[in-house]
Design goal:
mainly beta; five-stranded antiparallel beta sheet; single chain; 76 residues
Length: 76
């Protein structure tokens, strides 16, 4: 991961991470955007993934399960 920031489209519960990933031996850029919009059974968390700028999943793709949780920053 080379970047971490608040993601304005999902404010105030959104975060964006970015960096580089190994995809079948090739280095590719990625961006993952997440939103912690509710606890299990009470709200829908969201996830968006781009690989080399191309959308893999979108903002309107709601997660069917799981529990995204934001944690306070521990280091600088």
């Amino acid at each position: 991961m080379t970047g971490y920031a608040i993601y304005p489209a999902f404010k105030p519960n959104g975060r964006q991470t970015s960096g580089w990933a190994d995809v079948d031996g090739t280095t590719e850029s990625y961006e993952a955007d997440v939103a912690d919009d509710g606890e299990p059974g009470a709200g829908v968390d969201r996830f968006r993934l781009l690989l080399n700028g191309a959308r893999v999943t979108g903002l309107d793709d709601h997660l069917a399960g799981g529990n995204i949780q934001l944690h306070k920053q521990q280091c600088q």
